[in-house]
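dude i think i finally got it to work??
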Amino acid sequence: MITDPVIRNEWYPVAIAAMVEKGQERLTMLLGEDIRVFLGPNGSAVEKTDGTALAVKIAYGHVWACLGTPGELFAIPEAVQEGRRLVDVGSVRVKCSPLRAVENFLDIAHFPFVHTDILGAEPHTEVYRYQVEIREDVDEVWATKISFYQPQAAKSAEGGIDTDYQYRVPAPTCAVLYKTCPPRPSEMDVIGIFVQPLTEELCDAWPWMALFDDESSMADMIQFQQMIFLQDRSILENQLPRKLPLDPGLEIPTRADMTSIAYRRWLKKRGFTYGAQLVAA
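look at this
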């Protein structure tokens, strides 16, 4: 059992809220402990196998649970913005550290090679200099002023465009991407990845989107995002070491890895070590 309050006191996604509200029970794990997600008399509930009830919150289409004493869940204001379509993509199980899954979401350089002719393509492979900071006032990692050519930036896109990106890491196992919205260039699409740590080397990734897209069907938008993440899965499951090294000397970063470097430094500062490798194997 994980006893570290830094790890236990975080909120983690454990189910799609709409599925639970329909009476669908989910047996799953959180931080190595078996849990049950179900519809109780007062709404969605989560409990351990011994019947201990966990703190529960419904947000962004998901049921969130905490094994310890939770604080506030991070805010995504766009989730209530008029006109946006909220897309619950479902989960993808990945045999990797939950921190590896988040770091992969933050990586721009792999687009042309893993998501070829969708999120990237040769010869457009260079990652231009961008800005990264740990915003102390909100205790989040932010990467801004990112631009990357994408043949199909979203399901709604028609033809390639230079896409503007901003990344935000508001919690150790969650990240949010703001990117150019093809139908509304003045707006930003919002794509989140909420990672449920089953164990230190196994996780469920729950992608979520808040989009301006009046043309695509819900099924098409879900299929598009699932396709992207399934392309990532084979890469994630073959990364070594499986846990995310927090010591910068254990892996050799490049200029494109500035967000990853900041993310690892931030995790180390917070003392969040679940799924992390602290020393060389």
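The mean pLDDT is 87.
im so relieved honestly
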